[in-house]
Amino acid sequence: MRLGFLLVMVVTVAPAGAATVPTGFTDDVIQSGYARPVSFDFLPDGRVLVAEKETGEVKLVLADGQAALQSVLTVPNLQTWHGEQGLLSVVVDPQWPARPYLYAFYTGSNPNEQRVTRYGAGGALSDGQSGALTFDAGVDLFTGIATNAGNHNGGTLLFGIDGSLFLTLGDDEVKCDAQELDSVRGKVLRMKVDHLGATGPFTLADLAPGDNPYDGQGDIASLVWVYGLRNPFRAHVDPETGHLFVADVGWQTEEEVSVVDQAGVDLGWPRVEGGVLRAEQPCGDEDSAQPPILSYGRPLGSSAISAGVYRAVDGGKANWPEAYWGDYFYVDFYRGNLFRVQGAGQSWAPAPEVPGQGDGDPWASRINRPAQFRVGPDGSLWYVQHFDSGTSTGSLRRIRFTAGLGGEKASMGAVRARFGNSPD
Fold this sequence. Notes:
disordered N terminus; mainly beta; about 0% helix; 28 strands
């Protein structure tokens, strides 16, 4: 049985050039020439930190979009032999500059080991026009996250509205690990980091918030927030509701997106995929699995990427019109079509078409290999393009509203939106 709604996607292969966006919007290149950029985040002063997947370099872009400076950090000892390995996610501490930390999730040089490391910053912590930013050697928070395959690493670090740190982790399809609470595979973990001191080492018990759904059932189980996932490469938190939107890469049948509005839910893998029962898989219970809010068949795509809930930013000079506030966007990594849906809770449906969007077409198209999206301090939807078509380098870009005044402020006051590889 298929649950949620099935999306009929328009299949295109993204060519070179700017994305095709609706009337009144433009797709801007902020900086190009990155070596496969995969993740980025904003500092409160408007500067941008851009992470390259295979070099491990984190590069700084000034608040006015000046050229990327030399790397301010290189994450060492990466394992990159598989296309889904390397530096996968970076996120800035929400209390910066009081807590001037950058968190990185990556595959380490030990075979098939994933790690979370926190890097402390020095220098100009609050100057949008300064390149004088440095990082220390880092403190490991979570190590030895082992998989038996090079892919299915998950890949998103992101902060919740309560300051907790989420980490999405994939399943290498060994046994029923995604259903087992003592395994990190196929999970979203929720950790508490704002109490940690400047130096380690730290234990898993140090990271446990104490109010997770399986607290006290073991070191790993105490960190589990959601289970039953295959490969949740990109996820986002709605900065108004706190709900977690997870795009889960499918196997043979379905790509899917789920909304987690309560802790401890089972999203079904490997028993169900996109709401479709996999009868050959004995583990898990399809009757208790929460269905996705949407799914689409893999012949029409092969790597669902969350683009986040759009919320206008307080003081954003390019905020989108209020009609977009609260809408959810997602894209397929290989097809480059960006879709817009509207709804609440577990009920979502395609949004009405807008001028410049053809009948039945995606909201935007021709986006080449998008790896991560975030709403920026200007109110635009920023993203990194893993590589630009026909080249081996990628770019930092934004979809900007240009047709006049958008919404003047976010619906909840000052919001710093933090929207969380190309998995198969």
